[in-house]
Amino acid sequence: MLRRSRRDPRWASTLVVLGALLMMLAGGAFVAKDVFAGYVTSNLQQDDLIVPAAEQQGRHATISGAKTILLVGIDPRPDQDPAEAIRSDSIIVVHIPEDHRSAYLISIPRDTWVTIPPFDNGRARYLGGHDKLNAAFAEGGMKLTGKDQRRHGMSLLAATLRENWDLTFDAAAIVDFAGFTKVVEVLGGVDMYVDQETRSVHIGHDAKGETKVPYEQRFNASGGTDLIPVPGVTPQTYHVGYQHLEAWQALDYVRQRDTLPNSDYDRQRHQQQFIKAVFREIAGRDVLTDPAKLKQVLDVVGQSMTIDSGGIALEDWIFAMRGIRGENLLTVKSNNGTFHGSAEQPGAESLDDKTLALLAAVRTNTLETFLAAHVDMVSTS
Fold first, then answer.
1. What are the C-alpha distances in Å from 248 to residues 77, 181, 240, 257, 368?
2. pLDDT digits over 254-309, tens only?
3. Is residue 6 domain-resident?
4. DSSP assignments along 85-125, one per residue
5. pTM above the 0.70 mark?
6. In a domain, 139, yes or no
7. Which of 186, 213, 238 is the last residue of a domain?
8. Between these two residues, 225 and 96, which has the higher pLDDT value?
9. Domain that holds residue 138
10. Exposure string (b/e) for 60-81, b if CB count within 10 Å is 16 or more?
11. Residue 364 three-state SS
């Protein structure tokens, strides 16, 4: 549970988990709409990432009604070849009911075994087949770089979600986790609650205090990863409790899954907690009412994110979603927060019956009714 104190006033909605889209929306409640919207519109990268739900259903795009947004987090290595395929690290479905007063965040396990439809991005043709869900983003952007790689990756991922669960999206965003670190640097770090002891597989220190990689990672026959400790290197460890994390620590913490009992599910929860904590910091420092600070934050946000507003003006999103606050930004657990093995593919996952019913409620805009009968699916952290 995140700490509430005098430094915890109302906070805006999420960035990575809601992809800065809801950050912009909630911002309408803190600053003058025309000033804020004008700066956001000129600062953020916009692109056509998906076919909007309205177009798929043959109707005009409008801000009214329930909305579903696809959020994807990517975490490319700093030295990664620009032409190398990027897999989606986090896949989140955001559902906003018709009254626009709440938002529900549903993480879809990236290792879910799915049918990926055929796709041609102009440079490479994918014939269709079966793979883990995050492979769809990689296949869509194959042999492409930069914006083209991400645009086509997102397109195939959205098509895959529609193929398997009939999900359609009104808007979308891609967020680069490394770029998001700069947001935390602008804030001077983040205060958050670490809910389980977490050892880093990426950062450690030797006896001289020098930074070293603490484990050698080797793939095993079952498709998992074996961690071989590097002698003389102590892993960076995040202990349970409230603490201040510098930007590099925060990013390292939310990247970890190999040393956690529930692997990617624990990581998903930590990412959600982290984003909420970031916006507690933003609101606590009155960033959204300080034009200079707001500009500084949005400048770095714009570098790490690409948004597809689904044919709806950002100004309209900002105004329509102004009622969303921290207390009604809720995270929903898929697969009860634990690994649910696929019967089709060892090492992959499938969605359990309850999660399939959850996605059906998203499709039919009955999510709030569904969750009222399944309150255990709503995370308390």
1. 14, 7, 18, 17, 37
2. 889 889 988 888 887 887 788 777 767 766 656 666 767 777 777 777 777 788 87
3. no
4. ----SEEEEEEE-TTSS-EEEEEPPTTBEEEE--EE-SS-E
5. yes
6. yes
7. 238
8. 96
9. 21-196+249-377
10. ebebeebbbbbbbbbbbeeeee
11. coil
